[in-house]
Amino acid sequence: MSTKETEDTLYFGDVPFTSRLLTGTGKFASRDIIAPMLEASGSELITVALRRVDPDAKEKDILQYIPKSVRILPNTSGARTAEEAVRIARIAREAGCGDFIKIEVITDMKYLLPDNAGTLKATEILAKEGFIVLPYMMPDITVTKQLHDAGAAAIMPLGSPIGTNRGLEMKAMLKRIIEISKLPVVVDAGIGRPSQAAEAMEMGADAVLVNTAIATSHDPVMAGKAFALAVQAGRMARLAQMAEEKEYAEASSPLTGFLRQ
Amino acid sequence: MSFMNNVLELESFDFEGYFRSVSPEDVRNSLQRDELDQRDLLNLLSLTAQDFLEEMAQKGRQVTRQYFGNIISLYAPLYISDHCSNLCTYCGFNAGVDFPRTKLSLEEIEREAAAIAATGIRHILILTGEAPAQTPMSYLEEAVKIMKKYFSSIALEIFPMDEEEYQVLCKAGADSLTVYQEVYDRDIYKEVHPKGRKSDYEYRLMTPERGARAGFRALNIGALFGLGEPRKEAYLAAQHARYLELEFPDVEVSLSLPRMTKAKGIIEPKNILTDIDLVQFMLAWRLFMPRLGITISTRESAEFRDRLIHLGATRFSSGSKTGVGEYSLKDHDDATVQFEVTDDRSVDEVAEMIRESGYQPVFKDWEMV
Fold first, then answer.
1. What DSSP designation does B327 have?
2. What is the pLDDT of residues B22-53, one digit of tens each?
3. Does the structure show a pLDDT above 70 at A1?
4. B155 phi and psi angles, rounded to 5 deg
5. Among A183, B17, B147, B268, which one has the highest count of C-beta atoms within 10 angstroms of its own C-beta?
6. Contact (Cβ atoms closer than 8 angstroms) between residue A136 and residue A159
7. CA geometry: angle at B291 spanning B16 and A104, to 5°?
8. Where is A208: in which H helix or E strand?
9. What confidence tier does A7 reach under pLDDT thresholds 50, 70, 90?
10. Are B27 and B46 within 8 A, CB to CB?
């Protein structure tokens, strides 16, 4: 792998991205902050809940706040079944949101945890219809492979429950998924601080999605920039193949060296 | 199992004694916990906890922002009929109050819907009294279908129904159900609902459960403050919400805390919920259930609502008219209202206030599929 940043491109389907920070739109105090936040963070892909999109809005619709240079990743928030997610995705495409879709099939409103079976089913259907599908999922090895076979463009395992800012509570599972996944891995949900975003990237995640932590900070523009820098730092550390932390000390006099003497 | 079992179990619990026994240390401990249990809820609802109101508010605001973002959702109520066969002694629409009753025709409903939609509102709450003879299923179903043309989310606050009946309305396009128990104390319930369909406490208590099973994706429940002992009512309402959250994980649960006000032909409130109590209850609920929706109506004044934005509220009604036909058909002076609107600002004015408070007003937050 090249160490030149300029050649370090991330692909979802055949669409290239330079930035590895995905952002969200739903929690800002004012929608006017979205554009400057995007500029400061360099994020090229931003998720929007279709349930918030209103082409007939009396005031400006949410989509009009997103600069043309940034791609929209509509999500299926509110879907409780695969069928609902599929219908929402089709509505999003008709509403002019493009071919990207983030699948959220959620049956637990308390922790907003995804239903992997429903997510897989929706992925199969939508990938066949030509969508670039990014499914939000519980980190699970089998489902990772199944989503690949179903035609997903990436997988989006959660780091922690949405909005908790708890970081990578699913670390052990995420590591294993990064190891086996043939698709880009985007750690979504739970990342509350730039250091946690850097940690995910160092671990080998291909990208992260950060929403709450940016939107609810006192200065979302600066927070966006901070996350962008952290993601870059984490990515560069990964590419530089930094030495791993060691769980035990390396003896200066090897214990088994005598066997070869 | 239903929430009725919880209500019966709690009847032997000495609420007054427990609330009196709560120490500042108990409140401090409860405030420090990440996940609160029933005992923490009681502690935060106690009078002792009023000395910690600012701490509760700071934490409550942070939790609300974290889970909901810096947003307030907006909706408006639409009263389509004030016919009612119930005798709720605290309600201005009760059958014993003599005033000319109105039921909107389907054409009138459409005119009202268009008038509300023109203000930018996308979430509607349809209300009726309890008079199945005047507002039968076919009428309600048609009303929902008309709403579908104008709104993204349709909530119902009508009389309690069987699961099969709710299924019909869900299929027609309704997605949310509001039903208040009014008062969780069974003795007082009996006293203020002397006869008629509504006198069946258990049938009403089970209504949200029937609604969830019928397919509503959101439930809004609450107690009408002014009837039962407020702290106990606040506790039972929150327990009811928690029960629904656990029993129906795919349903969004919200609570309201309407306060009784004086009106023509009704009893005086048994007690008055003070502003400080109301804020304390909201915050205790918020900390107990971080993802709980909290709805504030225009019963509350503009000045008070402006403050509640920072204290855990997630949804406001706005531009509300509480009399049948008041949006487009008749003047306020000619209408009989269920309660007097205290915050009579327009939708635009409320949205502007929300923005000035550092929050985003959200008009549309649902998509019918």
1. T
2. 999 999 999 999 899 999 999 999 999 999 99
3. no
4. -110, 150
5. B147
6. no
7. 155
8. strand A207-210
9. confident
10. yes
* Nearest CB partner across the interface for B367, out of A27, A31, A88: A88
Distance from CA of A169 to the nearest CA of B (A): 16
Q: What is the ipTM of this complex?
A: 0.81
Q: How are beta strands A113-114 and A71-75 bridged, if at all?
A: unpaired
CA separation, residue A132 to residues A3, A98, A152, A223, B50 (Å): 28, 9, 7, 28, 53
Contact between B369 and A106 using a beta-carbon 8 Å cutoff:
no
Comparing CB atoms, the residue among A29, A88, A107 nearest residue B369 is: A88
Q: Is the dihedral of CA B207, B213, B215, B219 positive or negative?
A: positive
For B46-84, what is each residue's pLDDT tens digit?
Answer: 999 999 999 999 999 999 999 999 999 999 999 999 999
Closest CA to B158 of B124, B202, B199, B127: B127
A156-157 and A100-103: which strand pairing?
unpaired
| Residue B28: CA count within 13 A, CB half-sphere | 3
Given a cut of 60, whether residue A6 has pLDDT beyond it is no
A27: chain B residues, CB-CB within 8 Å: 65, 68-71
Distance CA A29, CA A21 (A): 21
Average pLDDT over residues A112-134: 96
Give the closest residue to B113 by CA, choosing from B79, B159, B73. Answer: B79
Contacts of A256 (CB under 8 A, 6+ apart): none
What gap in Å lies between CA A3 and CA A8, rounded to an integer?
8
Which residues in A197-235 are b (16+ Cβ under 10 Å) and which e? bbbbbbbbbbbbbbbbbbbbbeebbebbbbbbbbbbbbb
Active site residue A68: no
Angle at A164 between CA A163 and CA A170, to 5 degrees: 110
Q: Which of A102, A128, A175, A246 is catalytic?
A: A102
Structure tokens at B349: 């004015």
Distance CA A191, CA A210 (A): 6
CB B102 within 8 A of CB B324: yes
CA distance B186 to B228: 9
pTM of the model: 0.90
- Provide the residue type at A11 as one letter: Y
